[in-house]
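User: I'm putting together notes for a lab meeting next week and I want to include a structural view of one of the chains we've been expressing. I don't have a solved structure, so I'd like a prediction I can at least talk through. The sequence is below, exactly as it appears in our construct file.
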Amino acid sequence: MAKRRPSGDGMVRKIKRGLWEGRVVIGHKKDGSPIFKYTYACTQHELGDKLHELAGVYRGSDLTEDMMLTLGAWLERWSAETFPLSLRASTAESCRRMIRNHILPRLGKKRLDELTTDDVQTLCNELRHGGRADYKEGGLSIATVHRVHNLLHQALDAAVRARLVPANPADGVQLPKRRRTQKQILNDEQLDLLMKALEGDEPWHDFFYTELTTGLRRGEICALKWEDFNEAETLLHVRRTLKREGSALVCGDTKTYAGQRVICLPPSTAELLRERKKSALTEWIFPNPLHPEQPTNPSTAYSHMKHILACAGLPSIRFHDLRHTFATHALASGVDAKTLAGILGHTDASFTLDTYTHVTDDMKETASAIVGDFMEEIFGKELTPWQDARQGTA
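Assistant: Thanks for the context. Below is the predicted structure for the 394-residue chain, given as structure tokens.
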């Protein structure tokens, strides 16, 4: 039996027209026979350089016959095997849409063994600067380009593990720098205006008060049931989220595994829910005002928030910015990042800190007052360190 040739092993020969041909073993078929990668040059010396480079790329890879799959075929296989195990249905559909609209039109027919970093770079450049892969006008946002690249990178990482490519072609791609946008939040004065605008507006007053004191996601607060409220211990269990699938609203799993959590309610919120429970007619804490047997539609909650903001002369923020408002004020009040991450349902406290690194004017004024107070305690009112420094340099 012939000895199995290792990947990276090369051979050269002179062929017609004065050309030199070289081939390198890059893998093996199911029957054990080698798979070759060919290259050509005008001189033996030049061919030697090319073979040396190829051998370095493929040495130790031992690819399979499936390396000749197109990227489109691999993405179909990978998504079918991976998405059902790791993604919610809505997230999986969003990923399939990105593949279908942005990757397949340009790179779907490209063979895996021919896909290069330059191909992926060109894709990302064109998605950002017009000439979109789905042939619509205009470029995609920076955030969307990053999401497309990340999805493709994951798929190609899986291709490396499956021995279809020697290295990930999505590595080394230069992506546009993310711009950190300032979170829109309501300050203390604006919060007072919002709650005054909601006075007497049942059930929306209770709905938005609960939102502003818990930071729940829109689908989470709409999906709350009375069974989730532990009245005796003032705890709120977040177990599900309300989302739209087609034309229907359905309850599903929370955004992440950390999304299923227990929140210790502030006394005022717990008391509000106790009073509300006394007159409850259905299982929902916040039922649809017109159809109490159904939960509040998240879209309806969003529309009503916009109406209230406009009437109160407040900024036209997103519903998710109420969550940002809660988180920012919680941090400003001394809640530590680990505790806040648990309340918000974040998987990692570092993500919480990274998300809420901004500060408000109110927070700056509070910090200034705190610094002033402790500096006076150290140096006294009549002598501050900067005065001392000026005297020393006079």
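A couple of points you could mention at the meeting. The chain is about 50% helix and 10% strand. The longest strand covers residues 20-28.

User: Perfect, that's what I needed.
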